[in-house]
Specification:
Dihydrodipicolinate Reductase, domain 2, 10 helices, about 25% strand, binds nicotinamide-adenine-dinucleotide
């Protein structure tokens, strides 16, 4: 039984985690944490998630949650991630980071913590998307630079970062398959007189609308044909189940270090 604490428990993903944890006998939810200013603190986490009372209130007591849990699952806000991992590394607890949009300093803090604790971090925790990463890398390798690559992603209007972490990872995987440095070839949207499309460029485009949970398409196009590889999430449960699966994987015991869902799912 893996004792899990959720950070960001009142949010959209936090609620999906509470719902899915209830259905997984190998997971015991021991704490549901949100920020002190969250008006939902004090409410029962199950009631908020729509599954009825589970006897666990949403609190802002992160230190108590870290002590109670074997694994922390953070789906909060990028600025909070260094706080979660600092406390987790002080108490030698493993962490699953689902939160995206980390800046270079925040990423560096995560990598430093990974010297002393095991961390699973993935911009997208769903099995389908992690399979997509492997497929687009292979497509990049096989199709090569003769195929123009454009990545489009669509998310709900409340998403704070753009493009999505998943779109960036898809771009990195295509670049890896084509032996390119992603940073050198990525272009984010286009406007004005940008000139002709250079060979090897990877375009990334973000759409924000209504309640879209998460769509990603990678287009490989050359004169005469197009290949499109798409993933559409229809429920946040796909991410929540992946994160809970990752927490059980961590609790089974892994050396300090950075892991991703490819490790958890044995796709590497
Ligand atoms: P959300 O805004 O609905 O929820 C975030 C929650 O975190 C809120 O309740 C907020 O009050 C809380 N929070 C903010 N600062 C906090 C702090 N300092 N301490 C504790 N709680 C804090 O957002 P969401 O849609 O649930 O997404 C959360 C994050 O997860 C985003 O970064 C999003 O991009 C990412 N996400 C990742 C995946 C994945 O598979 N990796 C999937 C979906 C969303």
């Amino acid at each position: 039984m893996t004792k899990v604490a959720i950070v960001g428990a009142a949010g959209r993903m936090g609620q999906a985690l509470v719902r899915c944890a209830k259905l997984m006998p190998e997971i015991q939810l021991v704490a549901a944490v949100d920020q002190a200013s969250c008006p939902l603190c004090g409410k029962d986490a199950g009631t908020l998630a729509g599954i009825g009372e589970i006897g666990l209130a949403i609190t802002h007591d992160l230190p108590a949650a870290v002590k109670a849990a074997d694994v922390l699952i953070d789906f909060s806000f990028h600025e909070n991630v260094p706080v979660t991992i600092k406390l987790a590394s002080e108490h030698k607890k493993a962490v699953v980071i689902g939160t995206t949009g980390l800046n270079p300093d925040e990423r560096a803090a995560v990598e430093l913590a990974a010297k002393s604790i095991a961390i699973v971090s993935a911009p997208n925790m769903s099995l389908g998307v992690n399979l997509l990463f492997a497929l687009v890398e292979q497509a990049g390798k096989v199709l090569g630079l003769d195929y123009d690559v454009e990545i489009t992603e669509a998310h709900h209007k409340f998403k704070k970062d753009a493009p999505s972490g998943t779109a960036l990872r898809l771009g990195e995987k295509v670049a890896q398959g084509r032996k390119q440095n992603f940073r050198d070839v990525a272009i984010y949207g286009r406007e004005g007189l940008g000139g002709e499309r250079p060979r090897g460029q990877i375009g990334i485009h973000a759409l924000r609308a209504a309640d879209i949970i998460g769509d990603h398409t990678v287009l490989f196009a050359t004169e005469g044909e197009r290949v499109e590889i798409s993933h559409r999430a229809s429920s946040r449960d796909a991410f929540a189940k992946g994160a809970l699966h990752a927490s059980a994987w961590l609790a089974a015991g892994h050396k300090p270090g950075m892991y991703d869902m490819q490790d958890v799912l044995g796709l590497r």
